[in-house]
Each structure stands twice: as structure tokens, then as C-alpha cells.
Amino acid sequence: MDAITMNLLKEVADLDALPTGAYNLRANGKGAGRNTTANIDIVTKEDKPGIDIIIKPGTKKESVHIPVIISETGLKDLVYNDFYIGEDADVVIIAGCGIHNCGGSLSQHDGIHTFHVGKNAKLRYVEKHYGEGDGLGKQVMNPTTVVYLEEGAVMEMETTQIAGIDDTIRTTKGEIKAGGSLVVKEKIMTTGDQKAITNFEVDLNGEGSAANLISRSVAKDHSRQEFNSDIRGNAPCAGHSECDAIIMDQGWVGASPKLTAAHIDAALIHEAAIGKIAGEQLDKLMTLGLSREEAEEQIINGFLS
Amino acid sequence: MLEIKHLSYKVEDGSEILQDINLTIQERFVAITGPNGGGKSTLAKLIAGLYEPTEGQILFDGNDITHMSITERARLGISYAFQQPVRLKGLKVSDMLRLAAGKEKKNVDYCGYLSEVGLCAKDYINREINASLSGGELKRIEIAMALARSTQLTIFDEPEAGIDLWSFQNLIHVFEKMYEETRGSIMIISHQERILNIADRIIVLKDGHLAQSGSRDEVLPELLGTTKEACDILLGKMGGTK
If residue A162 lies in a helix (H) or strand (E), which one and from where to where? Predict the structure, then answer.
């Protein structure tokens, strides 16, 4: 692996070398390495680009890394990854996409990830998007995540986009059966002229199902962000969404939370707050000896931690 | 240590919150008291740099700090524990204590600072400074941060506010210990007799003016409505001793 690939791997998956356990590395639109285990199989799709990741029922304490690296300028990559998590499994999946674009053309990665999480299975899914480049070409990523949770299945998704992605539309859809629970934690920071749109749609279809969407974002410079969510309670369920944004410079943030209750025992809550860093927060950190810039950095790092 | 010359502070509507305050403070434990709205917190904020005076001068160890930023004053050795502590989403108690202790300090004694203020480090060190903490808990963390800074001058703005009286009795020893163990000075804005009782000097601010300033023995009896003469007469009649 070259230095650029290594650096991108470090950024998106915190890896210094190829991971242990199951993994599939995709680089510049092609497979670049794969490992399977007794419980986790990875199969290349035949009808379209992408892979199927099949995790056997009862698999515990295993992880799958599926990083995607793009270092060729002008490459547009579209990939469909389907995940089948067996009943009672308890696993971690680490995805991430890193683009290094030093040319003048647009580089784009659109990943469509579909999760079928079996009964009482537990999944932690971590994805990180990162772009870098010294050219004029844009880095674009449009991740789509579709989640089907069976009875009692639990999925926690952490998604982070802190730097370097010029345009992004991030779509997450979920359908949750009885006793299932989906938690989504999203962290976004946009700078310069970047644009980020987040769309959440979750259907709570079974008794005791739950969804918790937590979005924290920072919009700096002239960047724009949009947050749209719709939690639909179709059964006795609990839905909560929370959108907190810090706006700086000439940033722009729009939040459109929507709740739809179609059952009398659907308990749905939305919280949204957009604002600049409070003056008293800066004052407090400055009384500890930090400069204004250091104080801002601490507040943003903490907010997005 | 601290010299305040003709200090005034006017707000936008023209009302004067502080008028021509003159003070020279050498004592290591000073309590500022007086009725609400008298200008106590304003004076503290002017010293810490959160407000800039409309007139006058503040000298700290001979340095003119009147127009210095909050950061510059903090780095010179002034700490300010807020009356209403600020919440900071995402920052943890450990982060704040580490920032307070300073970059150069490698091993921060989180446990020590927190147990001083009556909090169990194990339960609090990873808590976020957010709405899940009560006002009293935030207040104790605010005091722990001042301990971690351990600067030449620490200003506490009504440390008793938001803390129940029983717990506050236990917190008094924090100030006493700070007084004994550090070489720094303490300035406390307080209405608590127990605090006034351990101060070297008491300053009374009323309606933006300096109403009284002197040693504890001079000021406290008058504040409590028990002048020395009154006490002597009372003790004499009852055959007690002073």
C-alpha cells in the first residue's frame, strides 16, 4: 500500500495496517484485499458493483472492516453493500470512505448500504467520511443507509464527517419491528463552501420499538447544512430526535424535524437547537487561560466528540 | 496585590453599576458582601476581565491590567469561579480540570480536586458538563477547577449559591485549606456569615458604592448588628466570658 492509501486508511478506519479479522478493502473502484473468517463471509455481487457480507447467527465479538479509498482524480464510484446479520449475533462493522483528490476533476463515492439485522442481534456500525486534496477537483460522497431491524434487534450507528467533503447527501432509512432499537449518532463539520444534507426516515412498526437520532453539527465559513428527519410511530413505540448545531462565520443551517404518529401510544419527541457558541462559554475557557481561538477549538472538539 | 483606582462601570442605558471605587487589597482572604444589586459580581467581573470599566484603573501586582483580555489576566494569575457555572456540551469534567490545571501539568490529580469539593471522582470524571448535572454539582466542579488552577488570585462569586447549607459547611474547609496551603489570595463574594468569619478583610458594597471596608473585627459586628459594645454589655450581664 502506498503512503496516500495508508493515510486515508488511518483517517477513515484508524488502521495502521490491514485489519485482523474479516475485511474488504476497495481502492479506486476495485477490490484490493479481502479476508473472511469461519463466521463472516464476504461475497462479490454479480449483478452490480458491491459485496454481500454474511454474518452467521450467534457470531460474537467479531468485527468487519470495509474501507473504501479513492485516490484517482475524476473517479466516480457507486457501490451496493448488503449486510446480513444473523440472529443473536453481536458484531461491529467499521466502514469508511477516504478520498484523496489532487487533480482538477470531481471524485465521487456513493455507497448504498443495506442492513438486515436478525432477531435479537446487536450491531454497532461505525462509518467515517474524509476527503483531502490539493487540487481544484471536488470530493463528493452520498452515503445511503437502509436498515431493517427484526424483533429485538439493536443497531447503533455512528457516522462522522469532519473534513474535506465538498458535497454530501446522507440518507438513512429504517424499518423497525417489535422490540427493535435504532440509535444513530451523526457528527458533521462543514467549512469553506461545503454543503451537507442529512435525511433521516424511520418507521417504528412494532410494539416497543425505539429510535433515537442524535445529530451534532458545526457549520463554518460559508458552508450550508440541512437536517431533515421524519420519525413515524406506527405502533406503541418511542422515537426521539435531537439536532444540535453550532453556526459560525457566514454558515447556514436549516433543521426540519418531522414527527408522525399513527398510533395512540406512539411517544415521539424532537429537540432542535441552532446557535453560535455562547459568549459565556468562551469567557469560561478564557478564564482558564485559553485564547479565544483555543477556546473555540475546545468547544467544537467537545461538541463533536 | 490588587489596587483599584476610581473604578466605575456604566451600562448602556446610562445607569452606573459601580461608582468611583477605590481599594488597595493586600490581605490574602477578602470577603465582599452587601445587598443584592450592590455591584459585587460586577466588581469581580471587572477584575477578571469579563467587563471593561468605563472609568478607572486596576493594578495587579503593579501591572496595569485595566485593558487586558480575560486570557491575559488568567495567564497572569487571576482565576474566576462563576456564580452561575456554564454548561459545555461534550466537554467532560476531566477535560475542564485538565484545561484548568494547564498544559504543562502532565498528571492532573482529578481525584484529589473532586474529593475536596465532595464529589466522588469515579462517578464524575467522565460526566459531560451538560444539563444532566445539577446546579450544585456544577458549582462544586467550578470550585474544583479553581483548585486545579491554583493561581495567585482566585475570585469566587457566591460559591454558596445553589449548594445546600449542609454541604456548604463542608465546603468552607476548601477555602481554609486553600488559604493555608497555597500562597495565593482568595476573594469571595458571599452572604454567608461563616465565610465572613474567616476573612482577613471585609468589603461592603451597596448601591454601587464602597459602603465599608476593614478588618473582620471592625466590620463584622456592625454587619451582624452586634457591635463590640453591645456584646460586652450582654456578656457582662450574663457573667459570661468573651
Answer: strand A154-163
